[in-house]
Amino acid sequence: MRKNLILIFLFALGTSSVQAASFRKEIPVRQHGKEEGMLLDLSKISMGTLNDVEEKKQYLSTVQLEKQRIQNYTLRMVYENAYLLYKRGDYQRAQEMAQTILSIDPNFKQAQTLAKQANHMGTYGTISEAQVIEAKFQETIRLYDSGRLVEANDKLNEILTIQPGNSKAQSWKRKIDYEIAKEYTRRGDVAYEKENYQDALDAWYNALLMRKDDPKLVAKISETENKLRKQQVADSMKQAMEFYNKGQFVEAYAVFERITKIQPGDPRVQKYMSQLKNEIAAGYYNAGNKSYNSNRFDQAISYWTNAKKWGADSSTMDSLIKRARNAKENHLRVKQQQAVIAEQKAKEAEEKAQEAEEKAQQALEEEPIETVMIDGEIIPGAIPGAIPGAISGATGTGGIGSSVGAVGANEALPTLGGTVNRVSAEASAASRAKYIEGLDAFNQDDYERARQAWIVAKQLDPGNSDADLGLRKVEELMR
Length: 479
Hints:
Largest sheet: 2 strands, antiparallel
Mean pLDDT: 75
Shape: elongated
Order of helices and strands: HHHHHHHHHHHHHHEEHHH
Strand order of the largest sheet: 1-2
Number of strands: 2
Number of domains: 4
Structural class: mainly alpha
Helix content: over 70%
């Protein structure tokens, strides 16, 4: 777009210089001293001297408006040259220049009309301009009789674009402008009676575009602007106090800021804003203290940073933030040290359990086989106090083959002489360590490792009921 603008600007200058001798039409000339205002203060271009975000936004908006003003000025110069070409009968070049203007600003009404008219005249050269104007007049009257005043006004603008000095079109335009302004004024009055001040102002401003010298209309607009400001301030004050009463101080402050844009310098609003800033800063400060005492150091830093933004003493907040950062580093260091110590202790406990397991296994291997005298014979591995006839394969009175005192296939033998299997203290400790190892694996859902550990625990101490329960549980889960 910038490249097109430069090209058409140079083209316009070239055309105007060639035709300078024959074309002296008045062109808007920038008055002395305006050049400095057009370029603004470039010393602020880095934004370094602007105080807050809102000021920077306003500055950028001003720059954008200035760019738009320069573009409009340039396009107006190009349009003047395009119109000169049209009046000379060079319809093709006039159309090309008008189309170039529209490629940059599609809403340039006069360029739209000129492009359309130049195309029409270039295509139908036998039709005179007077015939085109008359046709547009007929269309204007038809639209006016139908009550379509705005469209009729647009047609008159097209006529005045082609023939700016057409007195008939000027007369009709004054008449239609007056009627349109009258209708807008009526709509504004209706809206004002309903206390819809914004709608009333919108209608009256439209009327003012056509009745620029109407003092009564200007007075009504000024009065209604004041009423609208008071209404907006009252509504905003009500909303701000609702937020304040609910403890939503940040939201209340934002509403008060909006009020200052509507009505700057209100001492009551300034007082509320100052009080709110103090309360918001205090709230962030207290929240930071609470987070710090709970070892949530990042959160504390965030709260204290916000407290500083809302006016809390910067040196105090910076000191607290520094303390929180140091405390965070110390806390992480202590946690790392504790993790290392815990890992070392776990490793030592595992080594001790392994050592106990090895000792228990060795003790089992070295334990002598008990012998029992039965019927004058020494039987190795026999259970002390056992009934001779109960030995596997024996027959006779009381034996398995006997019909008297026989033990059923599903009947358990009673324990004789106390616990059948005795284990040493080392084996019991090793069994307990293996049970804990299996419990840890079970809690990690590693059921196979838990099962293996509890099998070893049962082997080390068959009386380990916890391991027995664990085995039953894990086997149910693994089915």
